[in-house]
Amino acid sequence: MASLTETQLAELVNRLRRLPRETEWVEFKQNLAPPEDIGQYLSALANSAALADQPAGYLVWGIEDSTHAITGTAFDPFAIRIGNELLEGWLNRLVEPHIAFAFAQGVVASSRMVVLEVPRALAQPVRFKGEAYVRVGSYRKKLKEQPERERALWRSFDRTPFEEQVATVCSEEEVLKLLDYPAYFDILKLPLPEGRAGIIDALKREGFIESNLSGGWTINNLGAILLARRLADFPRLGRKAARVIQYKGNNRIQTLKEQVGAKGYASGFEGMIQYINGLLPSNEVIGAAFRQSVPMYPELAIRELVANALIHQDLSVTGAGPMIEIFDTRLEITNPGVPLVEPERFLDTPPRSRNEVLAAMMRRFYICEERGSGIDKVVDRIEFYQLPAPVFEIAGQNTRVVLFARRPLARMERDDRIRACYQHACLRYVTRDTMTNATVRQRFGIEDRNIAQASRLIREAVDAEQILPYDANAAPRHMRYIPWWARDRST
Q: Which of 177, 344, 404, 419 has the smallest C-beta neighbourhood within 10 Å, fewest atoms?
């Protein structure tokens, strides 16, 4: 909880006092509470706040429970020790998963008050000493003894998209310290408001923050993951940062450089792309009068694939984030989560994302492709550079894309040649066209006189059932080809 002034504390206490009796996400107490009880309340209030769709639950000392009258309290959470540990540290150690609860104290109506704010449970029930609790009316119960509430709690986790979940609760001043708001206005080419109120209002309208009962602000995961000055400032998002690793050679034995993205996905995207491009090797092309250094991989392909890895990752996976690995002759981009579309259909299937709100905002920030044609553009650029076809694959519970450095056709393996023909047929098909011997020669840089060489490549792909004739009865010189999944168009 943000550090509250006495005025803010009084406003919070009075708002809570006006709530109905037996609100399950608020508990009033007058006197001291044993540490064990406070730990159980932490669990119960976090879980009950999630059930009530509240950003936080509250435990207030100095209020009479039945009348909500202010009585004051002698309870001092900062003076209590359990063995050699202060109460707050002891609770932090025994509550799982970690939640950013906080105590605040002050004087309200001439009486000393203490408030404990407990963020709602996210993704899983909050437990104290391994046991989850929940409030039933004014009583504290073990969650496992309340099967209906337990089922409802798990449903609430599924119901709330990751982007809408709470990243942190803080003051207005802390919002401006935690979020890179200048980047927001800069990316969208909007004038920066002169006063703090205009900035806060813009972030609120965008859905990145919202006011809460404590008089402070809640930053949701969407605002934090896009605009964080430091993702590590948000406990649940630190491991979502993209990692860029450069290796020596073509294996993972020796690491040359490793960088973890510090900023949010939007505020840090351009810097990350520049960093990746700075690590990538280049090819020297000798022209008629000069030498020119050409990037090994098309920059557009890098941008689209990195953006896809950020957007389409499974954000519910803990302890993992997107990873870009640079080898001497290949580049691998991996993100957590199995794709919602089969990898071999990336080129033609309309995109589906687990994170629709994040994807929409990334489109607004001009970071990803608006119409879902990003993979088409990647393959198009790869073909233009006459590079080996990329690999789209599922690796365990992850999605991986592999780009390869330039390799002569004579050195390509059979699978490489078939994959390239298949992707070429897909790319032609989604542009309302078909693959021919001539387009294959252009794709691979085969001289026009070597029609037979292109025909052998096509035959390999047909035999592998990756492509098929558009019209099997057409004359050989007029043969056209389509991907296997478009067979209903063939005759």
A: 177
Q: Is residue 291 part of a domain?
A: yes
- Is the pLDDT reported for residue 158 higher than 90? no
Per-residue pLDDT of 450-462, as tens digits, reads 999 999 999 999 9
Residue 123 tokens read as 């993704």
The residue out of 107, 139, 160 marking a domain boundary is 160
Q: Which of 217, 47, 245, 227 is nearest to 128 (CA)?
A: 47
Nearest alpha-carbon partner for 325 in 401, 244, 251, 241: 244
Whole-angstrom distance, CA of residue 138 vs CA of residue 69: 17
Q: Are strands 102-108 and 209-211 parallel, antiparallel or unpaired?
A: unpaired
Rounded-to-integer distance, Cα 318 and Cα 295, Å? 34
- Around 371, how many Cα atoms within 13 Å sit in the side-chain half-sphere? 5
Residue 423's domain spans which residues?
Answer: 409-491
Structure token pair of residue 35? 């540490």
Residue 291: pLDDT above 90?
A: no
The enclosing domain of 64 has a CATH number of 3.30.950
In Å, what is the CA distance from 80 to each residue of 30, 88, 100, 118?
17, 9, 19, 19
CA 341, 343, 345: angle at the middle one, nearest 5?
70
Q: What is the 3-state secondary structure (H, E, C) of 390-418?
A: CEEEEECCEEEEEEECCCCHHHCCHHHHH
Tokens found for residue 339: 């794709």
* CATH number of the CATH domain containing 471: 1.10.10
